[in-house]
Amino acid sequence: MTSTPPTGAARTPTPRLAAVTGVTGYVGGRLVPELLAAGFRVRALARDPARLAGREWADDVELVRCDVGDPHELSTALEGVDVAYYLVHSLGSGRDFEARDRHLARTFGQAAREAEVGRVVYLGGLAPSGVALSRHLASRREVGEILLASGVPTTVLQAAVILGSGSASFEMVRYLTERLPVMTTPRWVANRIQPIAVRDVLRYLVSSADMPAHVSRTFDVGGPDVLTYGELMQTYARVAGLPRRLIVPVPVLTPRLSSLWVGLVTPVPAGIAKPLVESLEHETVCREHDVRALVPDPPEGLVGVERAIELALRRIHDGEVTTRWSSAALPGAPSDPLPTDPDWSGGSFYVDERRTVVDAPADVLWGVIEEIGGHRGWYSWSLAWRVRGLMDRLAGGPGLRRGRRDEHHLRVDDALDFWRVEAIEPGRRVLLRAEMRLPGLAWLELRVDTAAEELAERTPDVAGPGPEAAAGPGRTYFAQRALFSPHGLLGQLYWWSVKPFHGIVFGGMQRNVAAQAARRAHG
């Protein structure tokens, strides 16, 4: 028999529901666990929730498939939501990014109003007033204004450079400083900025949910230190134990040239570096600190620049970078999943398939496969990979400099040099989707097989005679497939122009991965 609580008995209040967009991005991916720790229920909105499968918090949130540009999906996703975090922007997504940002913000604001969301929180960019802004900063400001006009109480937090392991701004500072002891720089290195640590950004975001309903406005947020960009690089050098850098400003480096220069020196592609560099043309210093009245500073104070750099470097050293600027897919990169039907590409779908017997247990081979890329490289003709990476950088792609989030483990949606992890079966298979600039779509599958019969069934056309086919059950195989779906004649020409090098690149990978696994297995 079930007892009924007496009338008027105290009931445990239901935790508030927070909806978070941009959860595959740098800030969104870090905000979710902070909201959970603060006692919120979290609804994570993503166009492809499968990309979140590897996140530690994936099982603790409600994953909802939602395209922010679709009002019908949004109305469902925002139903019953107390606070909605708008962390969407079209950074580096092409010439029409302003129109796209405008459309998405209006769609979101209308859906939030119709769903009677209690509050919208938006993270925008800090910018001066009374001056002509860069297109990127002007768009970020416009998005804030659209959300404020939506009829829903809105908090717009305006931040400048965010310092944290994996942020695009921090990566620019880090690589410019580490790789260039002497540098000629644009004039913007003398502009003042007010950086803020990512942990303070997250604290402001979480606490904004508690603002009174009558508060609907923008707030400038920044750390305790104001310094020039050049001083920021010198501070990084000091904290990282590097000699003082020689910085020589020159007047001839336009934002376009600066972004190409940044794209070549740092892992941040020119398409993302350009709006960041354009933003640095302005001094970004807080004009007010009114947020303190609603979100008091912590007892120990806001995190200063030196401490923020120390914390970021510690996380990088310890392999605890949970999200990076590359967590979000590179704008313009292919996002289609691997087609299961070869006819998908109109009859042209090219495959290069190889396998090798490995003198090592399956778990040892998997360990080598999972650690591929980044500073370890790709176990084959390194010059060819470097040249291909440089060509991609020059074309506006990510090249090889994004590296890896974690040196030893991969998860779905990780960026891996100019690839992205599309699928992973731990201990068995990883599928990488190319995000390099290509006249088509490409994938690379790396697989551990442990039985000759299974391998022959999966790839009967390449089993053939030889030691691999005759090895027998119980042996370990390293199998790989390179797949390419060409776009037009240019795609066809590309495939046939690189095919002669596959034996060197992919064949070398086969031999060297097998050799590395054998060395690990036998000491």
TrEMBL record:
Residues 22-127 form the NAD(P)-binding domain. InterPro entries: ComplexI_NDUFA9_subunit (IPR051207), DUF2867 (IPR021295), NAD(P)-bd_dom (IPR016040), NAD(P)-bd_dom_sf (IPR036291). It holds the Pfam family DUF2867. This is NAD(P)-dependent oxidoreductase. It comes from Luteimicrobium album. The lineage of its organism: Bacteria, Bacillati, Actinomycetota, Actinomycetes, Micrococcales.
